[in-house]
Amino acid sequence: SAVISQKPSRDICQRGTSLTIQCQVDSQVTMMFWYRQQPGQSLTLIATANQGSEATYESGFVIDKFPISRPNLTFSTLTVSNMSPEDSSIYLCSVTPRGQTQETQYFGPGTRLLVL
Amino acid sequence: AQTVTQSQPEMSVQEAETVTLSCTYDTSESDYYLFWYKQPPSRQMILVIRQEAYKQQNATENRFSVNFQKAAKSFSLKISDSQLGDAAMYFCALLRGTYKYIFGTGTRLKVLA
Predict the structure, then answer these.
(1) What average pLDDT does range B14-29 have in this prediction?
(2) Which of A94, A100, A116, B82 has the fewest C-beta atoms under 10 angstroms from its C-beta?
(3) CB–CB contact B103 A42 (8 Å)
(4) How confident is the model over B3-15, as pLDDT tens digits?
(5) C-alpha to C-alpha distance for B100 and A113, rounded to whole angstroms
(6) What gap in Å lies between CA B92 and CA B44, rounded to an integer?
């Protein structure tokens, strides 16, 4: 298994500002992902965080709005840039631990973001 | 297009009773995985059970079992002997291709004492 922590756990931000969310795993992982869960909605994949290279974004998500870093095998950040109230969501990271296959994913506790 | 549909936004069950949560999906893939995840109010997503599409036998994990009907593209979750701790949001998910999950909209389960 993998123990995942996210910081901050929640935040209230003003529109036009940016927030960086951290995802830390207690062991090395092959894959790291970022999801968004809008109020009352399901999880939507934002991007795959690739170690040492640019993230792979899903349709509807762009790097300028959601820049992602992954400097090593245990850590990633997601920045929500130039925020608007529509960005109010829970943001979750998920991982596939090293040595495990794609059908094994663990989710972090999420970051609850409210944009005023 | 790949889709996952959960038609029950909310369900209630009496403690110790059995409840079934519905999920249908659509995919053109022949090889895929299906999952049920639980998200309690604390938000940590927890894997409840998973099913490989190539396996005909329904997966079972203690009080949780699935009814996997591949031809009908149906994947329901049965929770037996419901407990108060089972109260949560339950998401059905499809994994096809590489690492990309598609989630349903969720079913909120309430357990009544």
Answers:
(1) 95
(2) A116
(3) yes
(4) 999 999 999 999 9
(5) 24
(6) 15
